[in-house]
Amino acid sequence: MIPERQNYTTACMTSRRPPMHSSHPVFYRCESCGSVSIEYGGCPLTGSKCGCNGTRLRLETPGPDEEDRTHILSYVFFGGAQHNAVRISVGGGSHPMTEEHRIEWIYLLTYEGGQMKFLDTSLKAQAVFAMAGNDAYSYCDRSICRMGREHCQFQCKRGWEVYAYCSLHGLRHLVL
Protein backbone atom coordinates (compact mmCIF):
# COMPACT_ATOMS: atom_id res chain seq x y z
CA MET A 1 0.00 0.00 0.00
CA ILE A 2 1.34 3.42 -0.96
CA PRO A 3 0.99 6.09 1.75
CA GLU A 4 -0.73 9.34 0.96
CA ARG A 5 1.56 11.91 -0.58
CA GLN A 6 1.34 14.40 2.30
CA ASN A 7 2.50 11.73 4.74
CA TYR A 8 5.98 11.52 3.26
CA THR A 9 6.60 14.83 1.54
CA THR A 10 8.99 17.38 2.99
CA ALA A 11 7.15 20.19 1.21
CA CYS A 12 5.59 23.08 3.09
CA MET A 13 1.81 22.76 3.32
CA THR A 14 1.11 26.47 3.77
CA SER A 15 0.60 28.97 0.98
CA ARG A 16 2.04 31.95 2.88
CA ARG A 17 5.44 32.78 4.16
CA PRO A 18 5.66 31.30 7.67
CA PRO A 19 6.48 33.54 10.62
CA MET A 20 9.89 33.31 12.28
CA HIS A 21 9.63 31.13 15.37
CA SER A 22 13.37 31.29 15.93
CA SER A 23 15.27 33.91 17.84
CA HIS A 24 18.70 35.12 16.85
CA PRO A 25 21.42 32.81 18.14
CA VAL A 26 24.41 33.97 20.13
CA PHE A 27 27.44 31.71 19.82
CA TYR A 28 30.02 31.00 22.52
CA ARG A 29 33.26 29.06 22.17
CA CYS A 30 35.30 27.59 25.00
CA GLU A 31 38.85 28.93 24.91
CA SER A 32 40.20 25.64 26.29
CA CYS A 33 38.39 22.79 24.53
CA GLY A 34 36.80 24.66 21.59
CA SER A 35 33.26 23.44 22.27
CA VAL A 36 30.47 25.62 20.88
CA SER A 37 27.38 26.71 22.83
CA ILE A 38 24.37 28.47 21.35
CA GLU A 39 22.12 30.83 23.31
CA TYR A 40 18.60 31.55 22.07
CA GLY A 41 16.01 34.11 23.11
CA GLY A 42 18.29 36.46 24.98
CA CYS A 43 18.48 34.19 28.02
CA PRO A 44 22.20 34.13 28.89
CA LEU A 45 23.96 30.84 29.44
CA THR A 46 24.27 30.05 33.12
CA GLY A 47 27.87 30.60 34.13
CA SER A 48 30.76 31.58 31.94
CA LYS A 49 32.57 28.28 32.43
CA CYS A 50 32.46 25.30 30.11
CA GLY A 51 32.27 21.71 31.38
CA CYS A 52 36.07 21.49 31.04
CA ASN A 53 36.31 24.54 33.35
CA GLY A 54 37.48 26.74 30.46
CA THR A 55 35.97 30.17 29.85
CA ARG A 56 33.23 30.58 27.24
CA LEU A 57 33.91 33.53 24.95
CA ARG A 58 31.12 35.18 22.98
CA LEU A 59 31.75 35.06 19.21
CA GLU A 60 31.24 38.37 17.41
CA THR A 61 31.06 39.01 13.68
CA PRO A 62 33.46 41.55 12.22
CA GLY A 63 32.29 44.34 9.96
CA PRO A 64 32.19 43.71 6.20
CA ASP A 65 35.54 43.53 4.43
CA GLU A 66 35.22 44.08 0.68
CA GLU A 67 38.71 42.68 0.04
CA ASP A 68 38.09 39.41 1.90
CA ARG A 69 36.85 37.01 -0.79
CA THR A 70 37.70 33.82 1.14
CA HIS A 71 34.93 34.37 3.70
CA ILE A 72 32.03 35.40 1.45
CA LEU A 73 28.98 33.33 2.35
CA SER A 74 26.76 32.24 -0.54
CA TYR A 75 23.78 29.93 -0.92
CA VAL A 76 21.92 27.96 -3.59
CA PHE A 77 18.49 26.36 -3.15
CA PHE A 78 17.96 23.17 -5.14
CA GLY A 79 15.70 20.15 -5.32
CA GLY A 80 12.07 20.43 -6.21
CA ALA A 81 8.62 21.09 -4.82
CA GLN A 82 8.58 17.88 -2.76
CA HIS A 83 12.21 17.56 -1.63
CA ASN A 84 14.60 20.48 -1.41
CA ALA A 85 17.76 21.70 0.25
CA VAL A 86 20.13 24.64 0.48
CA ARG A 87 23.89 24.52 -0.08
CA ILE A 88 25.87 27.09 1.89
CA SER A 89 29.41 27.80 0.67
CA VAL A 90 32.23 29.85 2.15
CA GLY A 91 34.41 31.56 -0.43
CA GLY A 92 32.60 29.62 -3.14
CA GLY A 93 33.77 26.42 -1.43
CA SER A 94 37.41 27.41 -1.94
CA HIS A 95 38.16 28.55 1.63
CA PRO A 96 41.24 26.69 2.97
CA MET A 97 40.40 23.51 4.86
CA THR A 98 43.63 22.69 6.71
CA GLU A 99 43.93 21.87 10.41
CA GLU A 100 45.32 25.36 11.07
CA HIS A 101 42.93 27.35 8.87
CA ARG A 102 39.48 25.99 8.13
CA ILE A 103 35.75 26.55 8.39
CA GLU A 104 34.84 24.53 11.48
CA TRP A 105 31.06 24.77 11.21
CA ILE A 106 28.17 26.40 9.37
CA TYR A 107 24.85 27.25 11.04
CA LEU A 108 21.58 28.01 9.23
CA LEU A 109 18.81 29.86 11.12
CA THR A 110 15.38 29.12 9.59
CA TYR A 111 11.70 29.73 10.39
CA GLU A 112 11.43 26.77 12.75
CA GLY A 113 14.87 26.72 14.35
CA GLY A 114 18.37 26.11 13.16
CA GLN A 115 20.74 23.50 11.84
CA MET A 116 24.49 23.22 12.40
CA LYS A 117 26.96 21.21 10.33
CA PHE A 118 30.54 20.54 11.40
CA LEU A 119 32.89 20.36 8.43
CA ASP A 120 35.62 17.83 7.69
CA THR A 121 39.00 19.18 6.57
CA SER A 122 39.06 16.70 3.67
CA LEU A 123 35.98 18.32 2.09
CA LYS A 124 35.13 21.71 0.59
CA ALA A 125 34.01 24.64 2.76
CA GLN A 126 30.33 24.01 2.16
CA ALA A 127 27.38 22.19 3.71
CA VAL A 128 23.99 20.99 2.48
CA PHE A 129 20.95 21.50 4.70
CA ALA A 130 17.72 19.58 4.03
CA MET A 131 14.50 21.59 4.27
CA ALA A 132 11.19 20.23 5.59
CA GLY A 133 7.88 21.53 6.93
CA ASN A 134 7.57 25.32 7.05
CA ASP A 135 11.29 25.65 6.31
CA ALA A 136 10.63 24.06 2.91
CA TYR A 137 8.62 27.17 2.01
CA SER A 138 11.98 28.72 1.28
CA TYR A 139 12.40 26.75 -1.92
CA CYS A 140 12.26 29.01 -4.92
CA ASP A 141 13.80 28.44 -8.32
CA ARG A 142 12.34 31.57 -9.88
CA SER A 143 14.87 33.65 -11.76
CA ILE A 144 13.68 36.81 -10.00
CA CYS A 145 15.61 35.71 -6.89
CA ARG A 146 18.77 35.70 -8.97
CA MET A 147 18.25 39.41 -9.61
CA GLY A 148 19.06 40.20 -6.00
CA ARG A 149 17.10 40.35 -2.77
CA GLU A 150 16.00 43.95 -3.30
CA HIS A 151 14.07 42.86 -6.42
CA CYS A 152 12.45 39.76 -4.91
CA GLN A 153 8.65 40.02 -4.82
CA PHE A 154 8.11 36.81 -2.88
CA GLN A 155 10.35 37.39 0.18
CA CYS A 156 10.27 33.69 0.96
CA LYS A 157 13.75 33.59 2.49
CA ARG A 158 13.66 36.84 4.47
CA GLY A 159 14.72 36.43 8.06
CA TRP A 160 16.99 33.45 7.50
CA GLU A 161 20.60 33.83 8.58
CA VAL A 162 23.82 31.95 7.92
CA TYR A 163 26.80 31.82 10.27
CA ALA A 164 30.19 30.22 9.60
CA TYR A 165 33.15 29.94 11.95
CA CYS A 166 36.71 30.20 10.60
CA SER A 167 39.43 28.86 12.90
CA LEU A 168 41.68 31.87 12.15
CA HIS A 169 39.31 34.74 11.40
CA GLY A 170 36.30 34.02 13.58
CA LEU A 171 32.57 34.21 12.97
CA ARG A 172 31.02 35.29 9.67
CA HIS A 173 27.36 36.18 9.13
CA LEU A 174 24.94 36.60 6.22
CA VAL A 175 21.27 37.62 6.36
CA LEU A 176 19.28 36.15 3.48
Automatic annotation (TrEMBL):
It comes from the Bacteria. Residues 84-171 form the Desulfoferrodoxin ferrous iron-binding domain. GO terms for molecular function: iron ion binding; oxidoreductase activity. Transmembrane segments: none annotated. This is Desulfoferrodoxin ferrous iron-binding domain-containing protein. It comes from [Clostridium] citroniae WAL-19142.
